[in-house]
Write the structure tokens for this entry.
Amino acid sequence: MRRAPETLPQMQLKDPLGTAPTNPSSSKSNIILTGFMGTGKTSVGAAVAKQLGMPFVDMDDEIERQAGMEISEIFSRFGEGHFRRIEKDICRHMATLSGTVIATGGGTPLDPENRAAMCFAGMVVTLCCLPAELGRRLEGDTKRPLLEGTLKSSSLAGLYEQRKTAYDSFPFILDTSNRSVTNTAQRIGDLWRDAGSRSKSLLVNVPGDQDYAVYFAPGALESLGVILENRGIESKIAVVSDSHVAGFYLNTVLRSLRSSGFDAFSVVLPPGETTKSLHYASRLYEKFVEGGLDRRGAVVALGGGVVGDLAGFAAATFMRGIPLVQCPTTVLAMVDSSVGGKTGLDTKDGKNLIGVFKHPVVVCADVDTLQSLDTDEKRCGLAESIKHAFIGDEGLLRAFEDDGCEAALDPENLSRSLEVKRRIVEQDPHERGIRELLNFGHTVGHAIEAHTRYSIRHGEAVSLGMVAAARISHRMGTCDSGVVERLEAVLRQTALPVRHTWDADGIIPFLSADKKAFRCTPRFVLIRSVGEVENGWKVDAAVVRDVLEEMRIDGL
Ligand SMILES: NC(=O)c1ccc[n+]([C@@H]2O[C@H](COP(=O)([O-])OP(=O)(O)OC[C@H]3O[C@@H](n4cnc5c(N)ncnc54)[C@H](O)[C@@H]3O)[C@@H](O)[C@H]2O)c1
């Protein structure tokens, strides 16, 4: 038993804000307005605050107050870099505010850490405006230091284009060109009342690709049309779903898209893992052609991980790739499969053997959809949430321990669970190293699934796999027995299995067949303590066998 020489980099989670609150569930969400100069952030922000009876903070005013001088003076005396540093500090502070309307500066979201902080702080709405209207609004404005040169060089539209990618990464984009301040404020107020006040969002930074927001909110599907407005989707939208999910939510989605002016059609497939196949991928291509989908359109995946993986694969490959929107409706899809960009199809030779990376443009997770989800599906999805808590967030684990699994279905805790995955995949988007940490419990879990010919649910297999990984860790001396006891207690509390009835010798051969095995040698993710895991461990088959035998009880 020794560490593999090819051991991959060990876990090192970065806190993007430097300010992760210890108990974020106690805070109320904020409304954050952003967008280019002249789109109306300050006037609309003040109107929204008045309408909802919330305090209003204008970041530019706050910067001037802190610096004791006007922004133009900060620019001329200390330069833009100094201004951006103050802005960044204030942006971090936003994460500690609660129930406030905040208008950011026009350049605030250009910095990826600022974007992450904004999403973390609440419901972010980007205001946009047609360039001609912007020019008219900004004429004669002398207070904006970046404006003078920009207008002189007639490159207002150019500057806007440069910033557009950053603005477009947020969940909501509202065009204010032909709207009054009151009308825009009203629309934002409605969004807030419908979904925003209990919403949570986070931003996934994809190196070399566009950031995308994951938006968790009750009733979010009703806002899907608004979420997709002004995202450059000019053509048809294909909504892909399975017949279970479609029965509950397809009409809501089509209504929302159509009321925002989209031309949407649906493709409904049979539910279940067998649909994740090349056969159904070709069926989708045929339906896409029939429906007139092209590269200016988009695919919406409405369903669990099966629909997400299949529709994601089809969106990645149809016409060499068209935009994808993920609308996850299972716990597993919300905390795991809708984010990270993996898509997969099964073949007769194995699960997820075919796949490509395809990131969505936005993830819209309507937590109300979990109400119709089967209890067993919820329970099994929670296995991944518990995994995230063990590998990266002890506070989340405490929330599960104190409040039970219902707490895990709260938007705050769902997003917190996904946050662990986000931090890992951002550091290793293509699974060349640290992303393997997400495999905690999956090495033995996959072997159990294969041994039982997939008759066991994935979440149950992962639950047993995590117990095995923790017990192996204890045997290898990386953790104390307290970690094992804590893991088993929270899994039992969620009605997930911690004991099994199979002969260990039946499971062992499947370990080396795992996709993530290296030269037929399985590699384990072991745990040191909650929040501290390591990948790349080689473990003697005898140790795994002993552990599986000690977990075995007859007649379970
Ligand atoms: N791409 C990734 O990163 C990734 C990660 C983990 C898992 N996966 C894949 O995800 C798949 C499993 O996903 P899953 O667990 O979501 O299963 P699933 O998509 O099969 O959904 C489970 C069942 O619940 C039904 N359902 C879904 N949402 C519902 C709702 N709100 N109300 C009522 N019924 C609903 C479905 O019709 C289905 O019958 C596997 O194929 C797995 O390989 C992918």
User: Anything to note?
Assistant: Residues 242, 244-245, 248, 271-273, 276, 303-307, 309, 329-330, 332-333, 336-337, 340, 342, 344, 351-352, 369, 372-373, 377 surround nicotinamide-adenine-dinucleotide (CB under 6 Å).
